[in-house]
Write a structure and sequence with these properties.
5-stranded mixed β-barrel; binds guanosine-5'-triphosphate; alpha/beta; binds magnesium ion; about 30% helix; about 325 residues; binds zinc ion; 6-stranded mixed sheet; globular; Ribonucleotide Reductase Protein R1, domain 1
Length: about 325
């Protein structure tokens, strides 16, 4: 499969889009600021949310504990907001500015709940321990495709494996590289392999996602050795002698990148998406979609299935189709 490189025209288009986004944001600020009670409002970035409390960083890099009005809806880590100072590191968020993207997850009642906003890149963190769970990685990659953001895979805890075992572990994920998801091997503990990762994080707002215990917070520690004090404490004791992240938190990298640490998950579900959307979430399926003999092909048993034929020809990795089918089955059950 040909590697996708950004052509100059694509780069120009991205620059145009970014310009439009900046204009849209400036207009939104303008509109909100004309509100009577927002005369003293200032722009800020939500770097963490704890219940109804937001930690908001202003343009000078100072943080403020803010409450927010209920009528603003859900505000999450990464959101751009307008806030008013209320003395002594305190404030009130008075407006939520438009989002470029939002990562959501259904809550227990099945309603989509935002986890983090304005993300441009999803970083799936995996490790030999805990053993990667089922199709979690592919679910995250589908989420990234549907959000229209980049994605990459980081294999952490390389120090736990000898050369041979490490190569074996890497081979399990090599097929992702062939469909242009970079796979980067690191050790947060030994601070090994961080440079290529940092390069990928430059200029992006990335979120680290994955199972609990794969080392997301440790990676943040390794990438940003000197935390500003306000966001210094990375994880909270769970009472079980383990440190586990309880709220998504945004950190600033020296190279201009932003990185969000998120609480580990056991499972992730995409929420209410259609079968067509799910198909589009597997980027290497795109050239084959609509080419099956039957227009309503489930890509399961039907003759003339373009996806199955692509698997047989070695153009699609069998595990990806298998995971698609498992997700599609779940989707059907929920509808
Ligand atoms: N050997 C080794 N251990 C690591 C590495 N990175 C993290 N760990 C260990 O793995 C355990 C979990 O690390 P965390 O950084 O808390 O994992 P997390 O992904 O943030 O977990 P949650 O916050 O629960 O989602 C800790 O005991 C770390 O010391 C690594 O590169 N090598
Ligand atoms: Mg953590
Ligand atoms: Zn088919």
């Amino acid at each position: 499969m040909p590697r996708r490189r950004l052509t100059r025209r694509q780069q120009e288009r991205i620059a145009q889009l970014q310009e439009k986004r900046r204009e849209r944001l400036a207009r939104a600020i303008e509109e909100k600021l004309s509100d009577r009670d927002s005369a003293t409002a200032r722009p800020g970035r939500v770097i963490r949310r704890h219940g109804q409390n937001l930690l908001v960083q202003d343009d000078e890099g100072r943080t403020h504990h803010c409450l927010f009005r209920q009528n603003l809806g859900e505000i999450v880590c990464g959101d751009r907001v307008l806030w008013q100072p209320a003395g002594d590191d305190q404030g009130v968020v008075v407006a939520l500015l438009p989002r470029d993207s939002v990562l959501t997850r259904p809550d227990y009642s099945g309603r989509d709940k935002p986890l983090a906003a304005n993300i441009t890149q999803l970083v799936v963190v995996l490790a030999p321990k805990p053993e990667p769970a089922g199709y979690l990685t592919d679910q995250y990659l589908v989420a990234a495709e549907l959000m229209g953001v980049k994605a990459l895979i980081t294999l952490n805890k390389a120090d736990l494996l000898d050369d041979e075992a490490l190569q074996q572990f890497q081979r399990r994920f090599a097929h992702y590289e062939r469909i242009d998801y970079p796979v980067i091997t690191v050790s947060a503990k030994r601070e090994h392999g961080l440079e290529p990762l940092l390069e990928r994080l430059r200029g992006e707002t990335s979120i680290l996602v994955g199972q609990s215990g794969v080392g997301k917070s440790s990676l943040i520690n390794a990438l940003i050795p000197e935390q500003p004090e306000a966001v210094g404490e990375l994880s909270e004791a769970s009472g079980l002698g383990r440190h586990t992240t309880s709220a998504a938190t945004l950190y600033f990298l020296e190279n201009g990148g932003e990185i969000i640490d998120s609480p580990g998950v056991r499972s992730f579900w995409l929420g209410k998406i259609s079968r067509q959307e799910l198909e589009k979430g597997f980027r290497e399926f795109l050239p084959y979609l609509g080419k099956c003999r039957f227009s309503n092909c489930s890509h399961h048993q039907e003759p003339g299935c373009a996806l199955k034929e692509a698997v047989e020809r070695g153009e699609i990795h069998p595990q990806r189709l298998e995971n698609f089918l498992l997700m599609a089955e779940k989707l059907d059950k929920r509808q």
